[in-house]
Amino acid sequence: MKYLSIHLLGFSIYASKYILIIASVSEHQPPTWPSYFMDINVLAFLVPAGIIACFSPVSDASSFVIHYIVTSVYFSGVMVRLMLVLAPAACILSGIALSQAFDVFTRSIKFQLPSLSVDSHIDAGGASSESVVPDDTVKTDKTEDTPKERTSKKSKRKEKEPVEKPPSKSQIKKRLSVLPLETSIIAIVLLILLGAFYVVHSVWAAAEAYSAPSIVLTSHSHDGLHVFDDFREAYAWLSHNTEVDDKVASWWDYGYQTTAMANRTVIVDNNTWNNTHIATVGTAMSSPEKAAWEIFHSLDVKYVLVVFGGLVGYPSDDIIKFLWMVRIGGGVFPHIKEPDYLRDGQYRIDSMATPTMLNSLMYKLSYYRFVETDGKAFDRVRRTEIGKKHFKLTHFEEVFTTHHWMVRLYKLKPPKNRIRGKIKKTKSKSTPKTVSKRKGLKRNPF
Fold first, then answer.
1. Is-contact 301 247, C-beta < 8 A?
2. Does residue 297 contact residue 291 with C-beta atoms inside 8 Å?
């Protein structure tokens, strides 16, 4: 089982680098330092203390925990989703560190508080002994003890008296690790506040970062809370304004949402086992308008869905993901080459963008009529003006755009009908030769 888990982890690491469909997922990218502080927060500072505590003394359990945290840190540095492996190890090490810290501070308090109570008891006992006056009259009535009895009583008293032993090494170490009483109390209070702060952060992260719906988006600004309901708006339009058998083409990220929310068939969805099918959609998005229309028409597609965030600053739109469409499409269809979409190795959408990029279907569907919004066609995500502002669509028509322009829907235009040429009828009688010639002519299939 151990070797199987290591093999699966190794395969996931290999796939995140060399299989494009897996590498395109944001969860498979290497994490950044802020992501560590976002997920484990104060545990990032307690884990090193827990590792140091495991070395004093080293045992089988502590060595296992050390190996556990080292391997989990390594795997979490490969991809973000493996932070799930790091979380339990960080909790274990942080718990060990907090346990050792509470042990030191509480022992310091216990070592000092009993000494104060013992001193008070000794003072009270000394004062009471001095106040007692011996009564000689009582002693005179008793018979005097013999010397032998006195010696036997002294020996018994010596046996009863406790013999003071020299302090052991552990007791000396404990006394040396004792901290001042005020310092220990303040440290315990700070540790309790640290734990409470971590609980508050965990609840906030679970509510905001990990439990927020990906369909209804919100943002906070100086003028209040803004709600972006564009995805539900687009799916509702598809559900009410299209036929049940109509097929929708989009990037695979929105496949499950479209199927569940709009109840329409999609070409590719989040089940990414069919790499060739996804590459076909990526090739269509990367191709010029006419070639893309032919690909979608061959797949019996009626509508194309594009996510665009240039107007409101939504950073996870299709223009950001476009290079992955090019790479995945080029992995199956060699005529799609990534350098054709880059200018000197840079991904640009402004006036310096390459003609291949400006003429691609994804660029046109994203920025169609975008100049009408502010007159400059300024993309807030890329923070630049687009390179191609005024253009028309010949094979696609816009059917719906949401309120914030986050989702745009286009319909494929039907193929142009070719009218057959009509032969004019003449009043002259046709001879047998001309009739035979007409019968020998082949009819034009178009």
1. yes
2. no
